[in-house]
Amino acid sequence: MTQEPATPPRRRMPLLYLVPNLISILALCAGLTAIRAAVEGNFGLAVALIGLAAALDGIDGRIARMLKTESAIGAELDSLCDLVNFGVTPALVLYYWGMRADTSLGWIAVLIYAVCCMLRLARFNVGNRLPEGAEKPKGFVGVPSPAGAMLALLPLYLAYAFDNALRMPPWAVSLWMVFVGGLMISRMPTPSFKGVRIYAEYARFILVGSVALIAALLTYPWVTLLLLDVVYLTAILVLWRKSARSLRSVV
In this structure, which of 5, 90, 111, 138 has its CB flanked by the most CB atoms within 10 Å? Predict the structure, then answer.
């Protein structure tokens, strides 16, 4: 008679350990609800939900590290949610907002952007699996997917900030999405705030600036988001020029 395998012992775990994965799932729900809002024509809510998903994406990993509950499943959940929230959702929001007049070109742009986001996330995941002792880059290589989503939505910010006076035509929105997708899979250095250190006496200025930024987002959301995109693009350009100069000096 064959003996049945022994049932592995059940183990208990604190309910608090589920918080990081729950945050990732809430971010996914926010992203999917943003698609529903876009289908219903509520693009302001759609953008707000994508922003909420980005905020939740920024804290789930930190909470997991604080609770010491990092796991392979949590990392995979985070990556899969990012693909939906920052690859699929912004592309569909833009498609429903301003690209349905040119369905063929617009849909091609949607597919290219989503695939670029997937490739960016795959490269990021592989980079995080470097062997112990290997030095990780200080900044990002290519635009991260949350920043890519906010950049991709720039045509929408532009239109709403100026009451549709500067609304881009569908073909231009499509080209912009493809351009942002290219930035995500590029090898360009992009800014990262993870390694930024400040002097303690400057902390109060950072806090006041953060409050001012939140107030601006609540009062003038479209103009503020547009300016943030411009500042981010300027930072990318500065880093790229600095990197190009350093390469020329080495040669």
Answer: 90
> Per the domain annotation, does 131 fall within a domain?
no
**Count of domains in the chain?**
1
Q: Tens digit of pLDDT for each residue in 54-96?
A: 988 888 777 777 777 667 777 777 888 889 999 999 999 999 9
Q: HSE of 60 in the Cβ direction (CA atoms, 13 Å)?
A: 27
Structure tokens, 102: 């040119």
DSSP letters spanning 129-184: TPPTTPPPPSSEES--HHHHHHHHTHHHHHHHHTTTTTPPPHHHHHHHHHHHHHHH
Q: Which residue has the tokens 């729950």?
A: 22
List, in order, residues 6 or more apart from 228 with CB less than 8 Å away.
150
In whole angstroms, how far apart are CA 119 and each of 125, 137, 142, 143, 150? 10, 18, 11, 12, 18
Residue 132 falls inside a structural domain: no
Q: Which helix (H) or strand (E) holds 190?
A: strand 189-190
Cα(228)–Cα(231) distance, rounded to whole angstroms?
5
| CATH code of the domain in which 37 resides | 1.20.120.1760
